[in-house]
Design a protein that fits this description.
Strand order of the largest sheet: 7-6-5-4-3-2-1-8-9-10
Shape: globular
Distance between the termini: 23 Å
Mean pLDDT: 89
Order of helices and strands: EHEHEHEHHEHEHEHEEEHHHH
Low-confidence stretches: 246-254
Radius of gyration: 19 Å
Number of helices: 12
Number of strands: 10
Strand content: 5-15%
Length: about 350
């Protein structure tokens, strides 16, 4: 299997003005010691470019809380062909939106975790954040940014998904991505009854695929942290005789489920390299080793690149190559990143 690096999520900081209940970064408001400096980030970016030309997603925390954010963003836009920004949107006004677009960032994602103020604000930990996020979204769209709305789905908002999608359509989003809650960071402290059951998750993913067909050509819909979506795509397409194609969708040309460690990786604010942001498995640090050496030689990455090493029902599943199960959920449940995905309802 080729190990082309396609997507890098770079956590620039843990600082954030919100206190979201599910945050992987366990964000905080104060300055965090030990974060990579501007110079370190731009040097590592060049090391990453020597390995490939991935989509570079600048994330956090809230990346706009870094005073040097635009220096970093401009540098990355000069190094990589495609750079995206993941922001909560609340710090964006017309001036900041224009500056983001002029820097060269091609896609901006904001998160909406409810179709109304009450649901979103309670989950995000700040009164008024719903309206401020929509205001930031609108400023970015008017400035010419390609916009994406992310929603982390759990029991508190699953029934609002159709309304959130309609809001995304009305707002002019180019993409709508559904993230299924992963129990890491602050998310590990949430009560189990907030997580969707495997059966309910299956229903949500089938609904999402139906909507992706309905909105084809108008909006790109995708599931994240739900690799079984790629099995469902094939099952439903076979049932309905829909021709499956990799349509690209610009910045989101992904064709398999869990790509952690095989085409995707995560860099933490202090330089740790992980398979993904939800799988807290540190395989190296860019302050100690070249990124390319970590990417090519990590034993954990080698294991993740071999579907034959999966365990339990994931090992015997006929969809293991297109799905691979969520390695982060497997690790959270068993402390073994190769064990079966506990949240998959499919029985091989």
């Amino acid at each position: 299997m080729k190990n082309d690096l396609r997507l890098v999520f770079w956590e620039l900081t843990a600082r954030c003005n919100l206190t979201c209940k599910h945050c992987r970064a366990e964000a905080r408001t104060e300055v965090v010691e030990g974060e990579l400096t501007t110079e370190e980030i731009l040097s590592v970016a060049k090391d990453i470019r020597a390995v490939g030309d991935p989509i570079m997603i600048l994330t956090g925390g809230e990346p706009l809380s870094r005073p040097d954010f635009f220096t970093i963003a401009k540098g990355c836009c000069g190094i990589f062909s495609r750079v995206a920004l993941a922001t909560n949107g609340t710090l964006v006004d017309d001036v900041i939106a224009k500056k983001i677009v002029e820097t060269g960032i091609q896609r901006v994602s904001v998160s909406l975790d409810g179709s109304n103020e009450k649901t979103h604000d309670e989950f995000r930990g700040m009164a008024g954040s719903f309206n401020e996020t929509l205001r930031g979204f609108d400023a970015l769209r008017k400035a010419g940014a390609s916009m994406q709305i992310n929603v982390t789905v759990a029991t508190h908002n699953v029934d609002q998904l159709p309304d959130i999608l309609n809001l995304a359509i009305k707002s002019g989003a180019d993409a709508f991505h559904v993230f299924v809650l992963v129990p890491v960071g602050c998310g590990a402290e949430l009560s189990d009854d907030m997580r969707l059951t495997p059966g309910r998750m299956e229903e949500v993913l089938r609904w999402l695929f139906d909507k992706s067909q309905e909105l084809k050509g108008r909006m790109h819909l995708k599931a994240t942290c739900a690799p079984q979506y790629y099995r469902i795509m094939r099952e439903v397409s076979s049932e309905r005789k829909i021709e499956m194609r990799n349509e690209g969708h610009g910045m989101q040309a992904m064709t398999r489920g869990c790509l952690a460690g095989s085409a995707v990786c995560f860099l933490s604010r202090i330089g740790d390299v992980q398979p993904c942001g939800y799988l807290p498995l540190i395989v190296g640090n860019v302050r100690e080793s070249k990124f390319g050496d970590i990417w090519e030689n990590s034993e954990e990455f080698k294991a993740l690149r071999d579907p034959g090493r999966l365990k339990g029902k994931c090992h015997s599943c006929g969809y293991r190559v297109v799905c691979e199960g969520c390695r982060a959920r497997a690790y959270a449940a068993t402390n073994d990143f190769l064990s079966e995905d506990p949240d998959c309802s499919y029985v091989p």
